[in-house]
Amino acid sequence: MSKTTKQFQTEVQQLLDLVIHSLYSNRDIFLRELISNASDAIDKVRFEAHSNEALLEGNADWQIRLIPDKAAGTLTIRDNGIGMTAEEVETNIGTIAHSGTRAFLRNIKEQNLAEHPEMIGQFGVGFYASFMVADRVTLITRKGGDGTQNGCRWESAGDGSYTIEECTKEGRGTDIVLHLKEEMKEYLDEWKIRAIVKKYSDYVQYPVVMDITREEPVTGADGKVIEGAGTMEKTTTETLNSMKAIWTRPKSEISDEEYEEFYKHISHDYDKPFKTIHYAAEGVSEFRALLYLPAHKPFDLFMPDRKRGVNLYVRRVFITDNCEHLIPDYLRFVKGVVDSSDLPLNVSREILQEDVQIKRIEKNLVGKILSTLAETKEKEPEGYLAFYKEFGPVLKEGIHFDHANRDKLQELVLFESSRTDAGQFVSLKEYVARMPEGQKEIYYITGTAREALEQSPHLEIFRKKGYEVLFLTDPVDEWVVQHLTEYDGKKLKGVDRGDLELDTEEEKKEKEAKKEEAVKQYKDLLGFIQERLREQVKEVRFSGRLTDSACCLVADDYGLNANMERILKAMNQ
Ligand code: ADP
Ligand code: MG
Fold first, then answer.
1. Which residues, 6 or more positions from 81, have their beta carbon under 8 angstroms from its beta carbon?
2. pLDDT tens-digit readout, 282-292
3. What are 474-525's pLDDT values in tens digits?
4. Of 92, 201, 268, best ligand 1 pocket probe by most atoms within 8 Å of the beta carbon
5. Do residues 542 and 519 make contact, with C-beta atoms less than 8 angstroms apart?
6. Ligand 1 pocket, 75 CB below 6 A?
7. Looking at residue 523, what DSSP letter applies?
8. Residue 249 near residue 237, CB atoms below 8 Å
């Protein structure tokens, strides 16, 4: 392949423009992104080498090397990770493969990104942060096991196009060469680099090294200083990070800031987490977990192929960021790390699918997360509400999928209702506590929007009786009420059901009598309407429910309700 020039995908270039022209001041994070990519690449080669040792080329001395070159004005980040083939460079750099992400980026408010370019990490485009400090970036890479002549050289000035060509490269892995902008030369400074690595990448588990050259007094062969011989330059390689996995340290020694930085590192979120959960489990299954509940939802929460949030380690060695059974789908917003002491290091991804240890860990994590949420709801209702507004629709999926924890989940779900203001919520517990005397059931109405539900004629009788009605406006609520049929001994019923127990015995009798009379009097009319609507409805009957409206539609006791029918229709059922 000779040198070819190619165009960036439109969305990538838009993103680059935003990054390049951003006034954002914290440019330091470019180094965090590049070191994190280097660390990911080493994780990969390390894991894949279990089944294919040739990848290693005899070099398992993991290292991320920073090479500032003042004369050339470049900062190079070099790793001996997995490396990339030319094809992989093309797909990984310069395109955003995921169409959902592309669509999202197209719609994102430019303002937001200009103020928070560090957000880009969450879109899987952290690499482009390079262009905050460099006006040209060269990437030289070679895949492990591929032979020195199979390297690839990619270069771009971030101006719409990039070049790509073959090259030779000695060692396996990737060099990112940043040609620093004139005003960004401070990133060549030893102390500046040290400070950034310490702040953002201290817990990276591979050594981040740099050659440090100092003037030292001349020494003899015995290592002793020779008086009067002057000084000489001496270069030593120093490791800049402590490499201490934060989750292995005692809680008391970890500052809030460290927890926060680690969260940002793994989540690519630009905001603080809402809650941090750090604990060690002992007994049947031994592991450490450091979990975070984010403060706001990521853009891809409802995209089917989003990344999973909890990474699996075995005795501090990274195994996978894609372990299916570590955390259930309805808690997919949880980010963090689980480090097991029980699993074997060379555990394969297939085994992980079936492993009982993983299932035990999952059970434990779910218990811990749900109890943390319960406690938060109790102690910080405001905070919980804000969290619930972001993640409630996802959490509610658990009622459908996690039978074992339904009791706990039903305490965590909240709904708007006929007695709350818009944006305010009630729990089932509160609902039951404020039920007026005589009310035997819990009522809800489903639909797409609160405003529409408030107009429903079904609510008339409930208003009159002072009964609260829950407004279920999430699509997922339909599944919720299929499983949450009873709470605290009270049945949950849709207001459009035919079998509601709204009246006292006396009221019932009174109504029955009136109805009978009406049926007699208007038999012909009823028959006429029934005849005209034969195709549309099953039955036309008098109702004791309405106060102001002339008629309403009700569902069979076991039939589908109107909203469900609408959903199924939309799904073409
Ligand atoms: P993310 O890391 O979230 O995937 P990035 O923009 O940081 O997004 O990187 C894009 C992709 O480019 C990575 O997923 C990886 O496949 C590839 N990549 C980036 N840096 C390296 C590297 N140093 N070694 C190997 N692959 C890399
Ligand atoms: Mg990255």
1. 38, 39, 40, 41, 42, 43, 44, 45, 172, 173, 174
2. 888 899 999 99
3. 989 988 999 999 999 999 999 987 777 777 667 777 777 777 888 788 888 8
4. 92
5. yes
6. no
7. H
8. no
